[in-house]
Specification:
DUF4388 domain-containing protein, alpha+beta, five-stranded mixed β-sheet, Trna Endonuclease, Chain: A, domain 1, 10 helices
Length: 434
């Protein structure tokens, strides 16, 4: 039986009776353990504490440590052969050689002309540090410029002793004598002075901080999305008006508690609320929390939200996040209806044009995502203008009059045509108002 020695075993001089060792040491009492050298060690089995005590001498004699292994073999009842296996230690890892730090370099202008500028990369050294000689890259050899050939020597006379003829050289082609070193140095143009290199400081303008819109701006956004008319009655007092005839109403909103004591707060209105935080609970005045106002604006962006939908919430009193959660359920229902309509269109797109659509097979394909009542309502809608995508057939089926992509393209063209006709009308209304 194999047992791995743990640190508590070494500290206590014991052996833990694990589940697989319960058959090896079935009963309590003294036992004798014989090690590799033939030495006997007396131990005590304690099933109540799940331990075998008295193994300190065995661990010490075998020079055993943590994670070493004991191989326990029963000989006779109460007598066991124990073999200690010392775990080999891994050799110490070789010290890692740190790579030399890459020297810092910078770009230095060596020479400059109106058209060409020579720039080299120079190593940045600390003051007093010795210059570092750059090592040539492997595979690259330095090629020295070949010396200019001097004037061709005059050929000597031939072996026969006849003098060689020397060709005449024009005086203009004769080489001029070199000037003295002092004169050439004075005629050489001065070397351009390297301009000191300064690090380029590139700074970008900080991004504008996200400004939280004020209550007036939020109420104006809600009015635009939900069909209200917003008017300012006085400092800190605004009124939302729903011009819906017999279904119209007004909501008076105070942006702070100080506005409750102004004459503008006495203006007539069907409902009155005080704009507060979600944790604030004013006494005597219904509240509209800023968190709920932001949530209403978000919901109105997702789905159509009208003043008729919001009237019940103003009538109930305060409008907080709990009320906004109820509005979220209404918006979710609108989005679910739109999703069901899209699912039906996607299923119809799998049918070719001028084919028969079975309502039963279409319902099986849609599954539980669209109920049968919703499916019948959507199919009935697609039989009417401006869709005219389906024609009802006797027996409950429908004829798909065209492909769904073509249907959507025709609807887009129809909507664009109507939009173009609405633009002149809007301009005429603006001119009449002016």
């Amino acid at each position: 039986m194999r047992y791995v020695i743990t640190r508590p075993c070494l500290q206590e001089g014991s052996l833990r009776l694990l589940k697989y060792l319960s058959a090896t040491f079935p009963s309590a009492g003294p036992v004798t353990l014989v090690d590799d050298r033939g030495q006997e060690h007396t131990a005590q089995v304690d099933p109540a504490r799940q331990r075998v005590w008295g193994l300190g001498s065995l661990y010490h004699a075998g020079n055993l440590g943590v994670n070493d292994v004991l191989m326990i073999t029963p000989l006779v009842p109460g007598r066991f052969q124990v073999e200690g296996i010392v775990k080999p230690h891994a050799p110490a890892p070789a010290p890692r050689r740190e790579a030399p730090a890459k020297p810092e370099t910078r770009r230095v202008v060596v020479s400059a002309t109106p058209h060409v500028r020579e720039v080299r990369v120079q190593e940045v050294r600390e003051p007093g540090a010795p210059a570092r000689t750059p090592e040539p890259e492997p595979g690259l050899t330095r090629r020295e410029p070949a010396p200019q050939p001097s004037a061709a020597p005059i050929a000597a006379s031939s072996a026969s002793g006849a003098p060689a003829s020397v060709p005449a050289v024009a005086p203009s082609a004769m080489r001029e004598p070199r000037p003295a070193p002092e004169a050439s140095a004075s005629l050489r143009p001065p070397a351009p002075v390297a301009t000191p290199v300064r690090p380029l400081d590139v700074r970008f303008p900080a991004a504008p901080a996200h400004s939280v819109p004020g209550p007036e701006a939020q109420l104006a956004e809600l009015a635009r999305l939900s069909g209200y008319q917003l008017e300012t009655l006085g400092p800190g007092v605004l009124r939302l008006s729903a011009d819906l005839g017999a279904h119209g109403y007004t909501v008076r909103v105070a942006t702070d508690e100080g506005a409750l004591h102004t004459p503008a707060w006495k203006e007539a209105a069907d409902y009155s609320v005080l704009l507060t935080g979600e944790e604030e609970r004013p006494s005597g005045t219904p509240r509209l929390t800023r968190e709920a106002l932001s949530a209403l604006i978000d919901h109105a962006h997702l789905a159509p939200l009208s003043a008729v939908d919001l009237r019940g919430y103003w009538k109930a009193g305060s409008v907080d996040l709990e009320s906004a959660a109820s509005v979220a359920e209404l918006v979710g229902a609108h989005l679910a209806q739109r999703g069901a309509f899209s699912a039906v269109l996607l299923s119809l797109s799998q049918h070719p044009a001028h084919s028969v659509v079975s309502v039963q097979r279409l319902a099986e394909r849609l599954g539980s995502g669209v109920s049968s009542a919703e499916l019948n309502t959507i199919l009935d809608t697609l039989t009417r203008a401006p869709f005219l995508a389906l024609s009802p057939l006797p027996g409950g089926g429908y004829l798909l009059r065209g492909g769904v992509p073509e249907l959507l393209s025709e609807l887009a063209d129809y909507a664009e045509g109507v939009r173009r006709r609405l633009r002149p009308l809007s301009r005429e209304r603006e001119a009449v108002r002016a």
